[in-house]
């Protein structure tokens, strides 16, 4: 290890991380329970002896461990970790490149997959609105089955949209904005625009009129697709200077909105159904509409953790290259079912759906509000989308998986001491067997298949992206949902693609080797002791390949700052710090912007502290804050109302109905802080453990401006929102 002035920070990341659910489950078993657990372990021992030979024959653990530990990537120049790293399986070291545009990819999919189901939407039977005492209105949706369109049927709608937009006067390279939630019509519209060389400009559905107006004005778009519920924001943007000539809205599932009269001063307002009716089913695009590989396919506005959103220019070459690289490693199959619910304004969802289209995999659309049986819009006793669809493939962001993890822990903790101890015993049993390369068919049948039904019970692969996933949560998902959870790493600027974990890797905590379309170099950052020459190669991650974006729209200064050339190859500088393990898997260990030097000279990784503490059941969200003039860090905490209310009662607080008062109560604050500090021991260094906290009684959401659409912290916004509270904690 390079023994620079800050090599202690690098060493911290080699410490063992907690990798078990059992530490979050209450542990006060009575004597008889200990006897029962002893008997259960004895039964497992006898079972192992009896089934030793069959397990060796059918599980073949040696082969699994060999696949898990094999070399996955290597530097181009042998023995020189400062040279670019590429996937170990690349033929002659040549990266995958695109040879078709997105429109051509779609045409090929229609030709090959024809009558096979392509996109499905679940029928909404009834919407009930429940008014709360606070004045808020909660919707409950009674839903039916999924209705499917084949590739041919989707293509018919693509053709109608393309011809209708042509009739409305759009010309090649005229931008079209999509400001809408994820739904079938979103991707159908995008496919039509890809074929016609109308660059898609994406805006997150949770952003307000200021961000929408900013994007519309910057790209100078005259056409926008939105939903009925978002029309007021679009109309406000027009009043603030957005120059639109056509507004197309996707019809609402709510009949009351359909009956409302809609007006727009200065723009043609048209429903999606009416747009389809304007189209020509026999339309064939002129050659002038055929895009090239280097034409812009999307200008994707990142929600950004600071300032105005940046428009990332993604060419057809970029997206097709990323799709090919990701599809190679994901082993997506023709008979799979993918559930699409993440925002299509996020590159992770766009690329995931593009992979499915190429492979002929059907996509069933959903939303975070209807995903599970206990989702906010699903009435009690009714089925969520995963239960009905039974997906085999799913993309997740860590925030969603952390919620699933905490929900299961809470459920286990609410049961009897015997149940808790039996569950812990079985969980640890399966974890140990999993890491040894064995299958646990009996335990799956008895316990874990029932948990897996939360996500439909048929999952084959879960892909995690968008933010770091804690090893503890990753292992939990592996075990409880009986399928591999593989982390991917990438940014909008790299079309969501840089690395993806190997499907056979039994370990946790890494994001895998470079995609077959990517090469990665580790740029030294000497100030913090990071260098590819360290014993474990480390440095800022620079990603190269044909999937790297063209740059930022109308922002040449930022483009020049973040897109660099090294030895004639163009790279994107991610700002993330990574290290390559011995098997060639990349591990994200820090982020430049999240590193803070405290008054005593110690570097603190705020992101690392947050990732570790987020697994605690009493926390829903957390933002750690540091001041270079102080010797300690503090934290702003969004507590879990159920668990912290129980903690308050244990500490003598009788009335927990007024949640804001509970969060301001000094006894509760001290109890939560004590719990966090206790939980941090063994996971964090002393200087990394928050010494003071503030409890935020309202949740942080993208709508409040405190989280991005990918549910990452908008650190500057949070610090601004809670400026007075932060100052009080330091005084």
Automatic annotation (TrEMBL):
Q: Which enzyme class?
A: ligase
Q: Which UniProt keywords apply?
A: ATP-binding, Fatty acid metabolism, Ligase, Lipid metabolism, Nucleotide-binding
Write the signal peptide boundaries.
none
Its EC number(s)? 6.2.1.3
Q: Organism, per UniProt?
A: Mesorhabditis belari
One Gene Ontology term, aspect cellular component = lipid droplet
Q: Which reaction does it catalyse?
A: a long-chain fatty acid + ATP + CoA = a long-chain fatty acyl-CoA + AMP + diphosphate
Which InterPro entries does this chain map to? AMP-binding, AMP-binding_CS, AMP-dep_synth/lig_dom, ANL_N_sf
The ranges of region (Disordered) come to: 62-83
Origin superkingdom: Eukaryota
Mind listing the GO molecular function terms for this protein?
Answer: ATP binding; long-chain fatty acid-CoA ligase activity
According to the entry, every stretch annotated as the AMP-dependent synthetase/ligase domain falls at 141-553
**Protein name, entry field:** long-chain-fatty-acid--CoA ligase
Query: What's one GO BP annotation on this UniProt entry?
Result: neuron differentiation
The cross-references to PANTHER family, in alphabetical order and at most eight, read: ACYL-COA SYNTHETASE LONG-CHAIN, ISOFORM J (PTHR43272:SF83), LONG-CHAIN-FATTY-ACID--COA LIGASE (PTHR43272)
Family designation: Belongs to the ATP-dependent AMP-binding enzyme family.
């Amino acid at each position: 290890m390079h023994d620079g002035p800050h090599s202690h920070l690098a060493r911290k990341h080699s410490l063992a991380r907690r990798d078990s659910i059992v530490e979050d489950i209450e542990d006060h078993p009575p004597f008889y329970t200990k006897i029962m657990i002893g008997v259960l372990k004895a039964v497992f021992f006898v079972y192992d002896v009896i089934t030793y030979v069959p397990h060796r024959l059918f599980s073949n653990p040696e082969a699994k461990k060999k696949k898990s530990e094999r070399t996955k990537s290597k530097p181009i120049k042998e023995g020189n970790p400062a040279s670019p790293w590429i996937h170990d399986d690349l033929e002659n070291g040549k990266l995958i490149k695109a040879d078709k545009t997105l429109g051509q990819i779609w045409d090929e999919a229609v030709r090959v997959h024809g009558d096979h189901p392509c996109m499905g939407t679940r029928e909404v039977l009834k919407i009930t609105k429940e008014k709360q005492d606070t004045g808020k209105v909660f919707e409950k949706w009674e839903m039916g089955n999924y209705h499917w369109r084949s590739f041919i049927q989707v293509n018919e709608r693509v053709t109608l949209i393309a011809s209708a937009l042509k009739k409305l006067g759009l010309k090649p390279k005229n931008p079209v904005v999509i400001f809408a939630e994820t739904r079938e019509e979103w991707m159908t519209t995008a496919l039509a625009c890809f074929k016609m060389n109308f660059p898609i400009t994406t805006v997150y559905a949770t952003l307000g009129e200021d961000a929408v107006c900013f994007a519309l004005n910057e790209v100078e778009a005259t056409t926008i697709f939105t939903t009925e519920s978002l029309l007021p924001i679009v109309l406000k943007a027009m009043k603030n200077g957005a120059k639109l000539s056509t507004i197309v809205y996707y019809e609402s599932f709510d009949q009351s909105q359909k009956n409302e009269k809609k007006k727009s001063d200065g723009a043609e307002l048209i429903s999606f159904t009416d747009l389809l009716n304007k189209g020509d089913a026999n339309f064939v695009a002129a050659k002038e509409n055929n895009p090239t590989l280097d034409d812009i396919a999307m200008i994707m506005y990142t929600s950004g953790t600071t300032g105005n959103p940046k428009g990332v220019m993604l060419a057809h070459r970029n997206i097709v290259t990323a799709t090919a690289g990701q599809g190679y490693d994901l082993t997506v199959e023709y008979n799979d079912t993918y559930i699409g619910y993440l925002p299509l304004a996020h590159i992770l969802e766009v690329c995931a759906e593009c992979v499915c289209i190429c492979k002929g995999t059907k996509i069933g659309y959903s939303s975070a509000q209807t995903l599970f049986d206990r989702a906010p819009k699903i009435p009690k006793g009714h089925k969520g989308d995963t239960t009905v669809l039974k997906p085999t493939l799913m993309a997740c962001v860590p925030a969603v998986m952390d919620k699933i993890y905490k929900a299961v822990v809470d459920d286990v903790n609410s049961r009897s001491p015997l149940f808790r101890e039996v569950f812990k015993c079985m969980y640890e049993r399966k974890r140990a067997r999993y890491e040894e390369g064995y299958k646990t068919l009996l335990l799956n049948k008895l316990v874990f298949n029932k948990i897996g039904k939360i996500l439909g019970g048929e999952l084959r692969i879960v892909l995690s992206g968008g933010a770091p996933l804690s090893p503890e949560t990753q292992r939990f998902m592996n075990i409880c949902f009986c399928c591999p959870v593989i982390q991917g790493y990438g940014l909008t600027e790299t079309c969501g693609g840089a690395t993806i974990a190997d499907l056979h890797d039994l370990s946790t905590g890494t994001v895998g080797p470079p995609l077959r379309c990517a090469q990665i170099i580790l740029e030294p950052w000497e100030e913090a002791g990071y260098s590819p020459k360290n014993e474990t190669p480390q440095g800022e991650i620079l990603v190269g390949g044909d999937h790297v974006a063209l740059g930022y729209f109308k922002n040449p200064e930022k483009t020049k700052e973040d897109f660099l050339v090294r030895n004639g190859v163009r790279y994107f500088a991610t700002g993330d710090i990574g290290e390559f393990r011995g098997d060639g898997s990349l591990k994200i260990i820090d982020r430049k912007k999240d590193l803070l030097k405290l008054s005593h000279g110690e570097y603190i990784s705020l992101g690392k502290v947050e990732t570790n503490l987020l697994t605690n059941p009493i926390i829903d969200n957390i933002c750690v804050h540091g001041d270079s003039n102080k010797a300690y860090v503090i934290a702003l905490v969004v507590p879990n109302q159920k668990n912290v209310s129980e903690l308050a009662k244990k500490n003598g607080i009788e009335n927990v109905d007024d949640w804001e008062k509970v969060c301001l109560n000094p006894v509760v604050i001290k109890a939560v802080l004590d719990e966090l500090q206790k939980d941090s021991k063994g996971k964090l260094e002393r200087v990394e453990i928050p010494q003071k906290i503030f409890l935020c009684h309202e949740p942080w959401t993208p709508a409040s401006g405190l989280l991005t659409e990918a549910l990452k912290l908008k650190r500057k916004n949070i610090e601004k929102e809670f400026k007075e509270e932060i100052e009080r904690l330091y005084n």
